Amino acid sequence: MKQIKRREELEKAIDSVPYRSCFGFDPLPITELWSFSSGDILIRSGTASAYLYFLVRGELCFCTTSETGRTIYLGAVRSFSVLGEVSSLWKKNPANDVRAVSDGLVLAISLPEHRSQLLNDVVFLQYLCSLLSYRLVLQNDKALSASVSSSKRTAAFLLENCRDGRLTITLKECAAELCIST
User: Fold this and answer.
1) What does the pLDDT look like over 109-166, one tens digit per residue?
2) Angle between the 171-178 and 150-160 helix axes, to the nearest 10 degrees?
3) In 3-state terms, what secondary structure has residue 49?
4) How far is the CA of 23 from the CAs of 6, 56, 94, 124, 130, in angstroms?
5) SS3 for 182?
6) How far apart are CA 32 and CA 30, in angstroms?
7) Minimal CA–CA distance to 63: which of 156, 180, 176, 178?
8) What are 56-110's pLDDT values in tens digits?
9) 125, 169, 141, 167: which is closest to 22 by C-alpha?
10) By the 8 A CB rule, do 51 and 110 touch?
């Protein structure tokens, strides 16, 4: 990962996503802009991140390593999202890696420097509560859908991820999302 120090690029990135609405204060003075490359690991399992990240552009995946050493894909994010809020913000070690699938940009806030400011911001904490409740509902829906046959899940998923008769994701991503092996 590489920090981009040009203020105009930072401001452009902030203005391209709903970042400012996540805070009850102007986050520009505490925000850094970082670029990442495909294959970079933004957050490592077992190690609390020094930064709270907000995806601006690119694709990141969440994965873990099985007991046999295989990488298990848990999901991905392709649009504005906060990363590290569940573990790193509260100085907990994350259970999963966050890896770059493509090149992209993140906004970053140094947690050692600004953790207390974030934890005292009611608007930010409300944003996190809303986000975490949404993710919990999404996980419950996925757990319920796992009880539906893989052929029905596959058909529904393919319909949901096709544009103009073309699949918009890879077959590997499709299998991971459906919790079936390739």
Assistant:
1) 999 999 999 999 999 999 888 887 866 776 655 555 555 666 676 677 677 777 777 7
2) 130
3) coil
4) 22, 16, 23, 5, 13
5) coil
6) 7
7) 176
8) 999 998 888 777 777 777 778 888 988 877 678 888 888 888 999 899 999 999 9
9) 125
10) yes
* Residue corresponding to tokens 């911001």: 121
**Across-strand partners of 43?**
98
Lookup result for tokens 């390739």 = 182
Residue owning tokens 């009880």: 147
Strands (E), the chain: 2-4, 31-36, 41-43, 51-57, 60-65, 71-77, 81-83, 97-100, 104-110, 162-163, 166-167
Q: What does the block give as tokens for 153?
A: 């899940």
The token duo for 112 is 């050692």
Supply φ then ψ for residue 47, to 5 degrees: -135, 115
Helix (H, G, I), strand (E, B) or coil at 135: helix
